[in-house]
Write a structure and sequence with these properties.
about 35% helix, about 350 residues, 13 strands, binds magnesium ion, four-stranded antiparallel sheet, alpha/beta, binds 2-succinylbenzoate
Length: about 350
């Protein structure tokens, strides 16, 4: 018998994060804590508003208490849990949060790091930064600052009207830097504008069209040489197969929450290696708990491109873990302690929570 404590807390973002689907000033964080013979944690990458996907913190909590808690009472094995949770449609992010907590728990029971369990080989990973839409002067100074700090790749958010001129200006100012853009599906009605970005030698263009529009991405990819990278479209290894078969994209952005957890992520990683599809790890402005999982997955050798994983202080004045993630020479060290290898600052989490729910398993 164990207690599951779910925390809801708001942490201000240092810089507003604006995408084609909205602007965010605060992260509304949802954390899952297993408290029993051992302590284990998982973070749901949902937020308070369903702008990136249909899931939000409210649906996550509802699905957890209504369906997942019962499964958790039957098994604490992450693979068994996620396979039983398949009968519940969708809701990948909350499933992933609970699965993460169980991976952390299981690894700690074995006295192993999660990195070891998933066959990670790298000790540090390359860090990139995803910069939101900002007034031009602020954007340019943030890019300059990021390059000075050593980030290995810059990603800019774009939307119709904030696209070609921005990329042109950034190329004029900074030349041949490793640069990508992310549209978060905003060009569904203006695909011709996406083609106009082809001449700027971007490393990739992320998710220009709507999440279900594999055919549209495939048509667009045929007319462009810049690789399309799919983010929102990829919910499972089947979607990765569809992407490859249709040539709807040539690079995968993996987000563990979006695909329903680490088990499905490992299938996608294997698939991308077998088919020579470049894969990198996206981000959802996670706190140190979700960030730990992102860093750990990137210790796998298949991750050859810098991801959207930046150090804690790029996002928050104070992270929810005792030793926040730091960047040195554009890299972040992979946690090697037991489980996810980070120590949540429970006092800070308790003090910052505006809601707290306690459930019992078993
Ligand atoms: O599309 O990659 C995205 C953040 C929230 C929702 C969607 C996305 C993002 C990011 C930020 O780009 C990545 C990060 O720094 O965590
Ligand atoms: Mg994206």
């Amino acid at each position: 018998m164990a207690e599951i404590i779910v925390y809801n807390l708001k942490i201000p973002l240092k810089v507003p994060f604006e995408t084609s689907f909205g602007v965010q000033n605060v992260r509304d964080v949802l954390l899952f804590r297993y408290s029993g013979d051992l302590e284990a944690w998982g973070e749901s990458v949902t937020d308070s508003y369903p702008g990136y996907s249909y899931e939000d913190n409210g649906t996550a909590l509802y699905i957890f208490r209504t369906y997942l808690l019962e499964i958790l009472g039957e098994t604490e094995d992450p693979i068994e849990f996620i396979s039983r949770a398949r009968k519940i449609k969708g809701h990948s992010m909350v499933k992933s949060a609970v699965e993460t907590m169980l991976w952390d728990l299981q690894a700690k029971r074995k006295g192993k790091s999660l990195k070891e369990i998933i066959g990670g080989s790298k000790d540090k990973i390359d860090s990139g930064i995803s910069i939101g839409i900002l007034p031009m002067e602020k954007l340019l100074s943030m890019i300059r600052n990021s390059l000075d700090k050593g980030y290995k790749r810059i990603k800019l958010k774009v939307k119709p009207g904030w696209d070609i001129d921005v990329v042109k200006r950034v190329r004029e100012e900074f030349g041949d830097i490793p640069l990508t853009v992310d549209a978060n599906q905003a060009f569904e009605r203006n695909p011709e504008r996406v083609k106009m970005l082809d001449r700027y030698e971007l490393l990739m263009i992320e998710q220009p069209l709507s999440e279900r529009n594999f055919l549209g991405h495939s048509k667009l990819q045929r007319e462009m040489s810049t690789p399309i990278c799919l983010d929102e479209s990829i919910h499972s290894v089947d979607d990765a197969e569809r992407m490859l078969e249709m040539d709807a994209g040539r690079i995968i952005n993996l987000k563990i929450g979006r695909v329903g957890g680490l088990s499905e992520s490992l299938k996608i990683i294997d698939f991308s290696r077998e088919n020579k599809i470049p894969i990198w790890c996206g981000g959802m402005l996670e706190t140190g708990i979700g960030r730990a999982l992102n860093v750990i997955v990137q210790s796998r050798k298949e991750f050859a491109l810098p991801g959207d994983t930046s150090p804690s202080d790029r996002y928050f004045e104070r992270d929810v873990i005792k030793r926040p993630f730091i960047m040195e020479n554009g890299t972040i060290a992979v946690p090697s302690g037991n489980g996810i290898g980070v120590e949540p600052d429970i006092e800070f989490i308790e003090a910052s929570s505006y809601s707290r729910y306690v459930f019992k398993t078993g």
